[in-house]
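Suppose a classmate hands you a notebook page containing two proteins, each written out with its sequence and a corresponding row of structure tokens. How would you begin to make sense of it? This section walks through that situation. The first entry is reproduced here exactly as it would appear on such a page.
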Amino acid sequence: MVQGPTPAPPRGGAPAGAAPAATPSAPKPAPGDAVRRPRTDVSTAEVTGAESIVRSLEAAGVETVFGIPGGAILPTYDPLMDSKKIRHILVRHEQGGGHAASGYAHATGRVGVTMATSGPGATNLVTPIADANMDSIPMVAITGQVGASLIGTDAFQEADIVGITFPVTKHSFLVTDPDDIPRTIAEAFHIASTGRPGPVLVDIAKSAMQAKTTFSWPSELNLPGYHPVTKPHSKQIREAARLLASARRPVLYVGGGAIRSGAAAELRKLVDLSGAAAVTTLMARGALPDSHPQNLGMPGMHGTVPAVSALQKADLVFALGARFDDRVTGKLSSFAPHATIIHADIDPAEIGKNRAVDVPIVGDLKEVIADLLPELAREQETHGKPDLEAWWRQIDSWRETYPLGFTEPEDGHLAPQHIISRLGEISGPDSIYVSGVGQHQMWASQFIRYERPNTWLNSGGLGTMGYSIPAAMGAKVGQPDRTVWAIDGDGCFQMTNQELATCSINDIPIKVALINNSSLGMVRQWQTLFYESRYSNTDLHTGHGTRHIPDFVKLADAYGCVGIRVEHANEVDAAIKRAEQINDQPVVIDFHVSRDAMVWPMVAAGVSNDDIQYARGISPAWDRED
């Protein structure tokens, strides 16, 4: 029988691919680690376990919880009602609560919190938890569990959520003893926010919530075996500086770790000092301003030709908080074939996982770059700055020949790229843009100019349709003074649009740009390219002269939002500007766009980046250029 609390091994401390035990057990102390209870303050008070949960969340600094009650978590909702510090936002579905917590965390850098009941309530959290795990989002999920005596009996609404989420959390706890609640929640927040951020689940038995206990918030934590390395090794820093100073075709491959570590300022200094080209992955858009002349944009499947080409032709690739994802590398064996690889990451399990590394650096990216800058300057003083003129001449020729662009649709519908470009230009770089998953996600990453971190939120790793609306809601709660745009597709929108009711009722005025092509657009694009235009089950009938089911303008009205439909190019700017002026309720603009618009450039799945297509049937002739 599972005894609580039962922590699973931290993600960063376990070998990649290690099989989880059927019943997670407490991590064994490392040699020399003292197993001791944390020292507590003296201000203890007798409370119920449920009251202890609320007090613990308050002590952890939580201001907002996105959740929905049910039988097993109900004891906690009663004292939560009396909290003066915590705003609980009642969502319409647990998935929405999880993504909202994720959006809140992404926009603020603070830990997002979601709460749900046992069984189906908890299992509905699996997708946002897995999503946060893939994108390294700090999140704590509190779930109610059936009473401790019922665990393992197939009781009503019982599910082993610790076991279910074990592979997709950074850490998981099952709490059956009310005395363990404060310490467990304190540990959960510490683990979620330190090292490589990630989601932590705390599953608490209903019997523990109802039992009497004393509340005492720990003043120190003791987590045997959990010691994230943030300070990089000086020898590896020196070697990285030597290689970067002597490379002739260097590329900084910047990943989402630059956002999570708050390393934007340090990254800017490194780019300026090194003179290297920089590419920012889907998760790193905004880590380096798009206006910086050395930023080549996004690499990968739908990256820019200059970014993809530079990586392929580089003699040095310096990966900074990136993970050599298959969407970036394409066919891995042909990725950056001539490059020496330096890889800096807070998670040692990422280094060498996909691509062999010449210089591994484990550490927090902010500290890594801070240590690297003086070493690089010393190298340049000793040996002179590298001559990168030929490299930049080559890159500039790619930028001039293969800029991002699009062609106007021939079917009379709007070009989605034009809408998203205008949205970015009108709303500006201080707004937060949150996308769903699919074509609109790629266009939003390509055609909006990102100038600062944490202004671009999306589901990069898991690719979760339905992410946009609830994540935008969470972002707006965390950053109430910023304009928040959800850029969503008509397929994604129909998965979680019920959270617009949450937004209306709770005065969360997000704005939604619905890129409505009446289709599952990215799937349709693949059907066009790889399935001879046989469109099996991708027509959603949400526009283009069909029945408009649903009618998104009427749906917006039903949810208490302002609904606007745009079908002509001359209406685009006016609609966006009108939405910008409405700040007392959510706005949904239903943009009817061409279903035949495609995302270019493109590297087909499993194909070498050498075979990137600039547009359909048009590939760069970079071999001849060489």
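The notebook's second entry, a different protein, reads as follows.
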Amino acid sequence: MKKSFLAALALAAVLCGTAMAKDEIVISTGVNMVAGKFDPILGHGVWGPDIFHCHLLKSGKDNVLEKDLAIREKISGDGLSYTYEIRRDAKFADGTPLTAQDIVFTYEKTKASASAADLTVMESVKALDDFTVEFTLSEPSSLFPYALSFVGIVPAHAYHEAYGDRPVCSGAWRVVDFQKDQQLILEPNPYYYGTKSPFRRVTILKIDEDAALAAAQSGQLDLVLVNSEYAHSAVEGMELLSLDVLGTLAVNLPVIPEGTAPDGSKTGNNVTCDPAIRKALDIGINRRQLVERALNGMGTPACSIGSDTLPWAAHIDFEDNRVEEAKKLLEDAGWKDTDGDGIREKNGVKAEFTVTGRSNDLDRYNTVVALADNAKALGIRIIARSAPWAECRKARAVPTCWSVGAPSPMDFRLYYHSSNINKAVINNPSSYSNPDVDALIDQAMRATDQNTASAFWSKAEARAAADVPFLYISRPRNNYLVRKGLRLPPLNKIPVRNQGLSVVENMNEWSWDD
């Protein structure tokens, strides 16, 4: 039993007397809520919910953008100016009013920090008065409104270098105590303009994936994230909550031969660069079987990055497990098993390559292991290897299993536009380049209304799918064991996966049954 789990249980035991009280809960939702760095200026909120800060816009019902802090919106006809009037009752957790100057401060700092929130097109932001702010763009960008839902507003008067671990919040919750990678204690922000939690205190503990079931059985937690392997386990006093999420598990397949990137790192793969290998895997694997084996059935097969519920997605679906068709495709391309070892060869190159799975995300690693077993039928050897995320994310030469998907098409542009090759660490890990796809993405970006943009995004996704730079496999569910009586209202949308974090998005609306 790991030290972190023992520490967590020890703390839970101390809290046990109050954990079941009506005004407190103790939960565990994976690693991200206790990792710190709750700083929107450095990217917190881009990949998952930010419960500490309010935003100009938010992803609302059915994943459609709606107003949060903003009460009025005006977009110029050329798509270069966005003006927002904000509510006048917003305050930070120290009681200081939130004004347009805080928004200007937040966005100027975020742009300067090169955050994961892409503000490249934001030319300037200025306060027209205390409660009106105007953004000017260098060119139209249909993704810009999504950025307004990622960047939480921080206080200009209380921002500092260590802000991420001690935020002065404008959202539903404020931090009372934080011990990195151990526990986070929260209280409702008394100045929050939205729904205030009935709980006086929430304690969030870090518990490793492999110890989560034991934690649930201990009876000292009110909600705990469990991986798919344990989702069907019965725990007295708790019920299973299984949420559909947007995250799609996919393996990037580098489309260029092995080489060296400008920064000196390895790039490309001599096996996956052959389109026949990529297409054979795409049509030949059995996704439903992979869901059963890797996710204990707690998920659905997936053939594309976008959930069917998203307006910009191409809604790609096709019959897989076409093993004989895949074999013929490989034979015709020159991949043959000439030495009888079950692995095909071509020009002296074995049809084998390594795929990494994130060591702290069991669903991802199990998916890679199941994929390796599935690919044997095609004469392709995949070597599954567990590795820390810091290593996995450097996937330009060694493919890895990603969890991709968001309400916006941001991930699609990040992974498919050729301008992103060799940029940052995770951009376009397949080194994919297709002028037709680039052109469609550019047209989507320049669109001044979301319907037009969605049509171009869909065409781009459909065109790129034929080249298979990513092998999409499944959409796992986020599974939680929840104490009976703890009521979690529905989100009315499909949240991002974020390794289980999304369940806290409406935590301010949770309550105990009377």
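A careful reader of the second entry would note: Residues 3-19 form the longest helix (17 residues).
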